[in-house]
Amino acid sequence: GKFTSGQGGVNLRKMFIVFQFSVSVALIICSLVIQKQLDFIHTKDIGLNKEQILVIPLSSAIGKKYLSFKNDLKTQTGVLHVAASTGVPFKPEGTNIMFSETPDKKPINLVINNIDEDFLKTYGIKWQEKLPEADSFDKIDGKVILNEVAVREMDLKNPLGKKIPFGGTPKEVVGVVQDFNFMSLQSKVTALALSPVKDTSGALMMANGYLSVRLDPKANVQQKLTDFAQIYKAYETENPFEYFFLDETFDKLYKYEDRLANVFKTFTFFAIFIACLGLFGLATFTAERRTKEIGIRKVFGASAASIVGLLSREFVWLVLISNAIAFPFAWYFMHQWIQNYPYRIELSWWIFALAGIMALLIALLTVSFQAIRAAGTNPVKSLRTE
What secondary structure, in 3-state letters, does 326-357 show? Predict the structure, then answer.
């Protein structure tokens, strides 16, 4: 509880303030970068429309009757499209990996997904190029559609009409779709083959496939779920009705990033709080130590604003030094972190500027209370303290 005037004590306090604010600024930058990366992931155009899609996994029993089940779903109001497939985006189960070859015999991994005629329009997947016959699903049954990555990796020049090895049987390429993220954004778009299958026997879905239902945005989702469950029970009595929404599945892929963002926000709050306590203590100590000086300055006509500026100036320098220390460390660690993502933001200068300005404003707000209090003290009372 005693104030000492030794210069060593003051310098030690200033060193702690610089350290505390360096940590705070670094944490602010990390929080901003992580949140910006998360926003980028959630808003990036992934090449398909994941909103308003309800996915129903099919058991083996209902898979044999999936065509009737699908037609019953399509007749429901509020249902725009229904598609069947062996795999759905962000759920690798149901897709197969096949080793194909480029013209120079270089093997590549090719993800295969069997689809029906409604898959592309249900997911809003766009064509890059296609043969005229691709508009008639009957004519492309048993053929293959590639994405742009597959065309590049297989080094196919003018791929339309060419035949590629496909499970030991050559299949004709009838179209190329624009790349879309079938997996998470934590990995690049992979080579993908969509195999159109006009299935009338239920063989397509016997291996636990999926029905993807695109709902009208105006539809009552809870009511639709109730209706779908009743229809499901008519076909499947042993297993319960299960479903998931595609956009929620997409968001769950980034649980780690969400937790990390929350952790950094919490640590940032506590680091700033502790730094402000230290800064408030140092400001109180400085104002007490310079009580006589402030009184003399006021007697000679110094304004309250100039006194506040005088007391605040040295703390501004401390925060600026903290920024200079924190910026390179934060840049290095965040640069290393975002390298884990093939689709990532740029470490823009404004993130660092914003963090520095935030720290400076927080420091000024913390110091201003003591500075204004000291500046408003009666100089007569100040000069009588010694």
Answer: HHHHHHHHHHHHHCCCCCCCCCCHHHHHHHHH
Ranges 11-15, 166-170, 192-196: which has the least confidence:
166-170
Give the helix ranges, DSSP H, for the chain: 7-43, 60-63, 66-74, 119-123, 137-140, 148-153, 221-235, 246-252, 255-289, 291-299, 304-338, 349-375, 379-383
> What is the CA angle 330-336-337, rounded to 5?
85
Q: Which residue has the tokens 């496909």?
A: 166
The answer to whether residues 55 and 148 touch, using CB atoms and an 8 Å cutoff, is no
Q: What is the DSSP string of 69-88?
A: HHHHHHTSTTEEEEEEES-B
Instruction: Quote the CA–CA distance of 321 and 361 in Å, as a whole number.
Output: 15
What distance in Å separates the CA atoms of residue 323 and residue 344, rounded to the nearest whole number? 25
Rounded Cα distance between 133 and 69, Å, is 28
Short-list 309, 368, 359, CA closest to 17: 359
pLDDT digits (tens, 9 = 90+) for 129-166: 999 988 888 888 889 999 999 999 888 888 999 888 77
**Count of beta carbons in the 10 Å neighbourhood of residue 60:** 13
Output the DSSP codes for 1-13: ------HHHHHHH
**Which residues, other chains included, contact 238 with Cβ-Cβ below 8 Å and sequence gap of 6+?**
59, 61
Q: Is 202 left (phi over 0), alpha (psi -120 to 50) or beta?
A: left
Beta-strand ranges (E) seen in 86-168 are 96-101, 107-115, 127-130, 144-147, 163-166
List beta partners, residue 176: 129, 146
Q: How many CA atoms lie within 13 A of 17 on its CB side?
A: 28
Longest Cα–Cα distance of the chain, Å, equals 101
- For residue 262, give the 3-state DSSP assignment: helix
Say yes or no to pLDDT of 355 above 90. Answer: yes
Residue with tokens 């496939």, as numbered in its chain = 209
pLDDT recorded at residue 94: 57
What's the pTM? 0.79
